[in-house]
Every structure is written in structure tokens, then in C-alpha cells.
Amino acid sequence: MDATEQSLRQSLSEKSSSVEAQGNAVRALKASRAAKPDIDAAIELLNKLKLEKSAVEKELQSTISGSGNGSLNREAFRKAVVNTLERRLFYIPSFKIYSGVAGLFDYGPPGCAIKSNVLSFWRQHFILEENMLEVDCPCVTPEVVLKASGHVDKFTDLMVKDEKTGTCYRADHLLKDYCTEKLEKDLTISADKAAELKDVLAVMEDFSPEQLGAKIKEYGITAPDTKNPLSDPYPFNLMFQTSIGPSGLIPGYMRPETAQGIFVNFKDLYYYNGRKLPFAAAQIGQAFRNEISPRQGLLRVREFTLAEIEHFVDPENKSHPKFPDVAKLEFLMFPREEQMSGQSAKKLCLGEAVATGTVNNETLGYFIGRVYLFLTRLGIDKERLRFRQHLANEMAHYAADCWDAEIESSYGWIECVGIADRSAYDLRAHSDKSGVPLVAEEKFAEPKEVEKLVITPVKKELGLAFKGNQKNVVESLEAMNEEEAMEMKATLESKGEVEFFVCTLKKNVTIKKNMVSISKEKKKEHQRVFTPSVIEPSFGIGRIIYCLYEHCFSTRPSKAGDEQLNVFRFPPLVAPIKCTVFPLVQNQQFEEAAKVISKELASVGISHKIDITGTSIGKRYARTDELGVPFAITVDSETSVTIRERDSKDQIRVSLKEAASVVSSVAEGKMTWQDVWASFPHHSSAALDE
Ligand code: AMP
């Protein structure tokens, strides 16, 4: 916890005790009918102490708000953003005329344009620049695929139910809300309690269902709407179930992610790529998750666009040839150890983070760097972007390392991109289930004599000892690496048995000598056949767009100072409309000139809007600022026009003929505004603004 906050909480609790003690003293004096001057003096002291207490309270409140926790400021800010977004149809609650459905939203015209710009930059930045193979697979997926991937059994969130009404809530969200609200609104909690709540917030992703249930009980958390008691947490599968075809005999699901479509196509894609690794495949498409109680607007929805990359790599060589391109980047990183010890995210150099092993390997590091560049070029504030490493339990047992790109918004830090080294889990799972080997080969120039580790679990003995858990134990034994296996062999030989942790059972079992044979055999090999590892950056496009809305939003006072005007400072790259064209006054010549410019803008692919309403130019600027339009062309003569840049409000004058090409150069990033400002006659236009 912040040192100032801690000392203020300490001081507030001391002041509260003093006020209470003095209050008791006053009451005692009154009860004993003490002399009036004595009572007055005691009351005066009580009032003084109350004033001191309220000063500390104010200071503590402003410290909490100042450190970005001020829920009041955040809520007011969010309201202003969301009102503007809904009013200008960036998005619309779906099926609104029928009262809508929680967690489903439509994108309106500016929202669609922004989404299309974000996706086309994503294609440019990843698919094109990294030579990825794009695929487009169906949303409806047969059960067998999602059974193999583990989603049918494990794609769950923990749910609690209001014991009386049956209303469902996400268990971790209730605990998070409780801790956050206590920290922000309850100034009376002690410094120790505040530290404990902060610790719970930092490590709750790591909680087991039992730990989560125990905390909910310990804190006396009840159903938010009714205050009724809650059930114990239990898992709820988030997939929407369906069946394929009229017979209803082929069970299926709406895909909860796009990745599985890529994995099942691995063999064909590997051949398409000339049987060479590494390579990456990518997919943009809809994903469906039946979220338990979606409450965070566009951030937690039941249908959303995912953009996913599966980068297949040799597990023995996770270096990346382009890593030096990103190695010098420095940004906020939040490694596991810092989270567990209650520290905050810190600026790290990516190259060092990989060199010191904080990030598991270069390829994972490379994608972290590329995601950072992607998000900041879109307009995400780099001070409100951090890469948080998954805690040990949070990460799937097969994963080598995972980092989430989290963006700070009025809802707190939100995971927008997950970047995981999923090792060989997915391809192995689909190989096992389908019987089709999803493997890669490395041909040796010369045959190699290799010593191969052979682990042979003795299924009969394991079956007798572990019954229904036999399969988990066998899988864990087979998954041992050489070091682990040789260590086990040595212990079995010396002691006859060994304690062995089975990840999928989350417990130790005793392995006896007759249950497994471990040896090394010499063989001549012409090639190495292996299951590639996969590194997966997974982008929630809607979350990124919402955070972008918040990071680009600001208000400015109108010229008369009587109202606040909204501005979205979208970079030209994402702005839904790049340029507006205004005839300064309503006359035929200016309108004709505006039409000529509009035609030229259309021919160079620049989205734009003509505004021929007779309202003041300042009002028209204000209207377009609200849509985040970065440039405005004002036609004020038949031969030349002005171009105004939204953020500086500066204007340049260019000939009518040049207008479209100048706007297109700056909108597409071929020139900066500073370049064009220096090349054309210019002046500041603030005077014209509303
Ligand atoms: P996951 O597969 O759970 O790591 O999710 C991948 C990405 O999808 C996350 O980083 C989020 O950006 C996004 N995402 C997950 N769930 C939702 C949701 N309910 N609504 C919107 N975006 C989501």
C-alpha cells in the first residue's frame, strides 16, 4: 500500500479513537453534573478533535482519488464517455426496442468504422509484416473439437447463487467489488485491514474455489441486490450449446475462441508453409461466451470479436530473429514476484526481461513487444498500459509463461490481450483425440545416433493403485522431461518409491518401482519428429476499442464557457471519419467546390463527411470533435481552402486542388501535421472555435 495512504489510515484511526474518548469524557462530565466551564472546555476540545479527524478524512479521500481509485471521478468520467458514445451511435445496446439483452451490443456507424480501422491495422501490423497465414473458420463447432481442447470440461467460471431468488453472480467479481468498495469508500478501516484487502485483490486470481468461498464467507458477502446469503462457488460452463443439423444428434457449441480452428488445420497449414517452422496462423472472428452476469458495458460481453495468432515454434529453439527490433523497448511490466509481494508494476527493458528469464523466451518477448507497439500506435496511453504476468495457479498447468496486456480504464486494469506460451498442449490434445499426428519434422543432414528417453508406465499396476485417476498419472509420467525422469529413476532405484506431483489431480501420489520403467536407448535417427509449441497472442478487439475511447476522450469548455464540449482525440489511423468538408457559408460556388473535394477524397479512400448546414463554423467543429474527426477542410473561397487539425486547432491554407492529397498524406501517416504546417501558409484557428 502507498506509504501516504497507510500513514493517513493510521492517523485517521487514532483521531477516531481520540474523538470517541473525548465524546465519552463529555458524556461523563455531563452525567456527573460537572461545572459548566469544565463541560464547555471538554466540548471545545471534542469539536477541535472532530475538525482534525475530518481534515484527515478529506486528505485520505483525496489520496485514494488521486491514486486513480476515486470511484466518484471515475464514474462521472465513464458516464460522460458512455453518453457521448451512445448519443453518437458508436454503439447501441442490441435489441434495444425490446429492452435489450445484457452483454449484447451493436456497433453503430462510427463504431463500425473504428473497428474496421483497428482490424485493418491489426492485419497490417501482424499478418502482413510478420507474413502470417490467415484463416477464417466457422463459429459453430462440433463438440468433439471442444472436448479435445478441454473447453467442454473446463471452460468455466465460478458462480454463486442467491440462495433465495436463484440470481447468479460471478464469485470472484463479488469478492473484488467488496474489496474495492471497502478500500475506496470505507475510510474507517485500519491500515492493516486495507493492506489485507489489497493483498486479496493482488492474489485472488490464484484462489481455488474453496479459498474463494472461504473469503466470501469470512467477509460476510451477500447477494448485492437482496442481501440474501450466497451458495458456495461452483463451476458454470460459459459455452453456448447447440446442435448441428435437423436430427439434433450432432452436439455442438458456438466457439468460445477462434484458436481451435487454427489448431485443427495445423497439418495443412504446415504443408502450405513448405513444412517449415516457425510460422504463424491468424484468425479474426466472433467468439461467444455466456458470461454469468455481464456488467461492465462493452468490456464483458457475450459475443465479441477476437483476433488470434498461433505462432508455431520448435520447443527446443524459441529464439526470434526479429527480437532485436523490440529489445530496447521499455514499458510497464508486472512480474509475478512483484504482484505477490504487493509491489506495483515497474518500467522494464524488454531485452533485459528476456535475458534475466523474467519473460520465458525470445518469441514470447517478441510478441509482447509487438503488442505494445500495436496498442500504443492505436492511441492507447503508454502510462496506462502494463504487461502483467500470470500467477502460478492462474496459468494453465501446461503453459510455460503468460502475460496479459492490461489497459487501465475507469473500470480498473482490464485484460485486453493475452499472450501465452501454451507449449505443445493444443496440438497434442487434437492429435490424441483425432488420431491425426499434428507434428513437425526436422530432417538431419547426417543420420544421428541419439539416446532416447523411454518412459513406459505399467498401466496394470497404475490401474490397480489409482483406479479412475490412472489416466492422469500416466499422462503426467509421460510428460516428464529428461531431468525429472532420470531423477525419478534414481530415487526408485535407491528407495523403491517416490512422491510425484500430478498437475491434473493437483496432488502428490506415490509411484512404486513396479509402476514405471525409465531407460535411455541408443538409436540412429534421420529426422526428429516433434509437436511444436504454440505462442498465442489473443486480442479482445472490443475491449481494446473501449479503452481507446476512454484514453482518447476529453472535454473542453465552449468559447462562452457555459458548457463542456466532448472531444475524442483519435489518432488519424483509427478515426472513424478522417475529414469533414464545410462550405463556410451557404452559397452555390462553395458547395460546388466542397463536392469536388469530396469526390477527390473518395477517390483516394479517405472517409469524410460534408456539412453544409448553415450553423456557425465553431458549432460544426464541435460536432466533428465529438466524432474524433482529425481534420476539417473549410471552403472559404473558390480557389483555396483551410485545413484545421483537431488537437492543435491550427490551420493551414492550401489550394483547392491540393486539399484532398494533403489530407490523405497526413491521415495515412505519410506526412506529419508538423511537416504540412511548415510547408503551407498557416495560422492558429482557436478564435473560430465554439
Ligand atoms: P481469454 O481466451 O479468456 O484469454 O480471452 C482472450 C481475450 O478475449 C481477452 O484478452 C479479452 O480481451 C477478450 N475477452 C475475453 N472475454 C471477453 C468478454 N466476455 N467480452 C469481451 N472480451 C472478452
TrEMBL record:
Residues 1-21 are annotated as: Disordered. The keyword Disulfide bond does not apply. It catalyses: tRNA(Gly) + glycine + ATP = glycyl-tRNA(Gly) + AMP + diphosphate. The keyword Cytoplasm applies. One of its GO terms (cellular component) is mitochondrion. It is found in: Cytoplasm. It comes from the Eukaryota. One of its GO terms (biological process) is mitochondrial glycyl-tRNA aminoacylation. It holds the Pfam family HGTP_anticodon. Residues 11-67 form the WHEP-TRS domain. This is glycine--tRNA ligase. It is an enzyme of class 6 (ligase). Residues 1-18 have a biased composition (Low complexity).
